[in-house]
Amino acid sequence: MALGLDMTKEIVFASSEATVSRRISQLEKSGKLRKLAPRIYTTNLQDSPEHIIRRNLIDVLAWRLPEAVISHRSAHELRPTETNDFFITHTFNRKITDIPGITLNVMKGKPALENDIPFGTLPIHISSECRWILEVMQISRKKGEESKSFPLEFVEQRLGKMIHAGGEDKDKSV
User: 35 with 113, same domain?
Assistant: First the structure.
């Protein structure tokens, strides 16, 4: 891994190190790297940027928004909606649209809680089932696939399954 770059990976992230930045610039000019989004590059010169981002979405999130919590409907589905929306809780509110094929809907909220699920060794978490159920009950101005929420019928069915599987006293720690 010369100069902090792993060219065996599909995604390469920019660095604040001058030598790494120069190397990325050289590789981009020589056609060995392609820019996908601000400070995000790929060694894959054939597939569309949208497909590359979707395959590497969790790595992109962990790099761009460390300590974020995958939340709301995205915590249940773990993929963008049909309208390419993905929902995250972090320390600010913002809609990020500079990543090809995805809209990151960042909502200000609590950091990872004790019951939230770490995503492997990455600095990102997934809302616990109890947390995301509360999150999807929030009122949303958008409807359908663009919404951070699920229909009330879905929430009722999910709660019914939780009670059936573990009883009403399943998780008193929440």
Answer: no
